[in-house]
Amino acid sequence: MYLTLEQAAKETGKSKDAIAKAIQAEQLPVQKGEQGQWQIDSADLFQVFPQEGEPVTSSYSEPSPDASPRSAEASPENPLEPLAQEIQQLRQQLQHQAAQAQERYQEWKHLMEQEANERQRLIEALAAPLEEENQQLRQALEQAQKKNRDLKHRLAEEAKERRQLTEKLTESQSPPQPAWARWLNRGK
Description:
- By secondary structure, the chain is mostly helical.
- The chain has six helices and three strands, in the order βααββαααα.
- It has a domain at 1-52: Multidrug-efflux Transporter Regulator, Chain: A, Domain 2 (Orthogonal Bundle), CATH 1.10.1660.
- It comes from Nitrosococcus halophilus (strain Nc4).
């Protein structure tokens, strides 16, 4: 016959937690039911936990709160000393882990700084020839702009000179006189 956890607790007079601990310690075999509940075989249950009212001959016993290793060290004068020692050990572990984390942080920080320095060195190594080429291109552009200004100035001067020559030529040349005007001016 199979029992649920609650039924097993009622039959043995033990708490559900005590039976669950025995199951977790694998001292009491169980099966899962269709709805996910534990099903405990009554024969196995009563080998580990006797029925209520029978003498205890069980192979499982609930650990008593006084059976912990800390309680063995407790003294009547200071019952909290084992807890204080455990807290001290935990603090030491925490400090050790914090120191390790700090070391790892410093290592990563150092690696990141090295990588940043290497990246900067590579950028500078690649940028130096480009900067030199850029400077040469700027100089060539300035020279081309200067030549362009000189050529524009020379063209402007030549245009001005052409206009002046054209004006002189037009002033010095009078339009040809018609034939009748030449005939009239012949005797003069």
